[in-house]
Amino acid sequence: MSQDTAVKKKEDVEGDSKKKKKTKKAQHSHAHDHSHKHGENCDHDHDHDHDHGAEPKAPKEPNPHHRALDRSGVAPIDIFHDMSMVKQVMRASDGELPRYGPGAKVFMHFDAWDERGVMLDTSRDPDIGLFELRTGKEFVVPGWEAMVKTMRVGELARFAVKEKWATGYSQLATILRREAKKKKALREGRAPEPEMGGCCGHGMAKNMEENGDLMEVFGHGMIFELEVLRVQEAGSYEKEHWEKSVSEKWTECPRLREQGNGLFKQGKFMAAAKKYGTALGYLEQLGMDKTGEEKREIDELTLTCKSNYVMCKLKLKEYNEVVERCGEILAKAPHNTKAYFRRGTAHLEKGRELELAVADFEKCLSLEPENREAKGQLAAARKKLAEAGKKQ
Q: Which tens digit of pLDDT belongs to each residue from 104-114?
C-alpha cells in the first residue's frame, strides 16, 4: 500500500468516526430528554447503557456504601433503613440463623478497610488469628455484634457502616496489632519489644507513628467483611474467668479444689496446680470487699488451695515459687507446720541458703515435735551445711 493511499484511508476512517460520534451524541441527548420526562431530576446516579463520552466525576467525599457493592451482583441490604449499615452477602449459607443470645461465643474472621477501601487489618494474618466475639457483653466495637446477628454460620458478608458502628475499632486494632507483634517476635525466636506506658511521650509518639492509619479512622465510616465459622450458645462452653459472676466464681472454687485433688492423686501435678491457681484467682477477687463470716470462709479455702498449690510446685521442682507462696501462707497462718516443712525442703533442694532450711525445719519441729519427716530433713540440712563449711 502506498503512502498516499494510506493517508487517504486514514482521512476516510476519521471522517466516518466523526459522523458516528455525532450520531451517538444525538442519541445520548435524546435518551436524556426521554428520561427527564419520567423523573423531575437527573443526578447521573442511574445507569445508562450508553457511554457519556467522559469519565464520571468522583464524589467529593468517599461513600463507603458504594464501596461495599464491589465485585458482587447481590442486592445490598439496608439493615436499619437509614443507610448507617449496608450489608452485602458475598457468599451465602444454607444454614439456619443461630440463636445469638447473651453470652453466645462467635468464632469469626474479619477484614477491615477504611472508607476509601484501604486495608487496615485482617484476622487471616496468622499472628492475629481467629477472632472470638461474645454477644451481650458490651463489646468495644458494638457494630460487630449488630452485623454478626444478621449472619448464618458459613456466611461471608461485607458491611459498609457509618461512624457510629465503627466506634471502638481503633482501640481494638491497636491491641490486636500489639499482641500480633509479640507473637511474631516469639515465632521468629526474638524477644518482644518492651511496652511503653501511654503517659510516656516517646511511647505516645511511637504509637502514633505505628498506628497512624487508625488515627485517621476516627470520625469516619468503615468497611468490614466478616465470616462466621461457628457459634456456641451460652451454657454450652466453659466461660472465661472475666465472664463469670461473683456467685459463679464462689460456687466454682470448691469444685476446682476437688478437681485439683483428683489430678494430684493421678500424678498430674501441672494440671492440678492450674486448678488450684484458678481457684486462688477467684478467691482473691471475692475477698476484696468481704467481712465477717464470709471473709473467714474465703480465707480458709484460700489457705487450703494455696497449700495444695505449693505441694504441686514442690513436685514440679519449682522451688522459688514454693518459697514465695509458703511465705504468703505463714504471713496469714504463722503456725502452719506444712508451710515451714515445704519451704525448708525447697531451700534444701536448691542447695543454697541452707541456714534457712535448718531454721524452717527447727520451727516445724517446735510446733510438731514428733514429725519424723521434719527430723529427717533437719538432719540432712545440717549435714549439707557442715559439708559446705568444711569446703570453705
A: 999 999 999 99
Region of 321 (left: φ > 0; alpha: ψ -120 to 50; beta: rest) is alpha
C-alpha to C-alpha distance for 50 and 32, rounded to whole angstroms: 11
**Mean pLDDT along residues 122-143:** 91
The 3-class secondary structure across 344-362, one letter per residue, is HHHHHHHCCCHHHHHHHHH
Residue 139 class from Cβ within 10 Å (0-12 exposed, 13-18 middle, 19+ buried)? Answer: middle
First to last CA, the chain: 111
In angstroms, the CA 312 to CA 308 distance is 6
Give yes or no for residue 172 having a pLDDT over 60: yes
Q: What is the mean pLDDT of residues 258-276?
A: 96
Phi-psi region at 52: left, alpha or beta (left = phi > 0; alpha = psi -120 to 50): alpha
Residues 6+ apart with CB under 8 A from 207: 174, 198
**Identity of residue 289:** D
Here the cell at position 129 is 488469628
Name the grid cell of 276: 488450684
Question: Please, what is the average pLDDT of the chain?
Answer: 81
Take residue 297 and report the three cell numbers written for it: 470462709
